[in-house]
Design goal:
14 strands, 2 helices, mainly beta, two-stranded antiparallel ribbon, 15% helix, Porin, twelve-stranded antiparallel β-barrel, single chain, 301 residues
Amino acid sequence: MYKKISFLFIFAIICSKQILAQDSTDLMNLLEKEIGPNEADQTNYTTATFKTTRLINGHSVENVGKGVMDVKISHRFGKINGGAYEFFGLDNASMRLGIDYGITRYLMVGIGRNTFEKTFDAFFKLKILRQSNGKRRMPFTISYVPTIALKTIKSQDPNRKNYLSSNLFFTHQLLIGRKFSDNTSLQLMPTFIHRNLVQLIADPNDLLSIGIGGRQKLSKRISINAEYYYQIPGYKIPGTTDCFSIGFDIETGGHVFQLHFTNSQGMSERSFIAETKGNWGKGDVLFGFNISRVFTIGKNK
């Protein structure tokens, strides 16, 4: 009798499991039918391709949010190969103070002043396409950045009249970035620079280069960044070198510290892309840092 009861009890458990499993399967199928089409209609946009709006010297595809002001302070010390007499470059420094502001989620503007050759600069950054998946699939984020720079340092040639237009420089960049994973991002930067005035008749007014940069996260708050600008032969200033920079991003609350080494002293596009003369092989390397602090001063919906 006991064996019969036990057999019936075990049989009942097996049957109930099968019924529950069948019910669960049917329920999941119903949920997938309910949720699936809605999820397929959604577009998921990629965020935080880079930590800030600057990779190192140059722009990244990131924008500040609408109504957000980003105050940036950038320092470049002297060349490390200056030795102990120059305190390995720390005796000499140049600085750029910049203010960026987000007008919309896709448009930001910025102004800055660089002590190197007393240069003023202004730009806007327009995000044309944004990396996404789901309903709308876009493999890249693409931004357009035009920049104007004005060099206000006095001319060293007393016989040449220093026209305002002679010291204007115009830069146009496309930023093409992709976030491959939570830790890895890459970016291409084809660049065109126009100089109103050249030193020699044979020097080109129009300069072409293409940059490549990347970011690799090392931890939740630290990443290693690098960027390199290759100048196209025939469209470069004679005697200049390609700009290469490498450094670290460190996030601490509302601040982002960028510590890096570069062979360029200038911090405006026409300076570090087209006028770099430092040579890494000869130790013409400068230590520098950027500090970024954001403030919300408008409504950001």
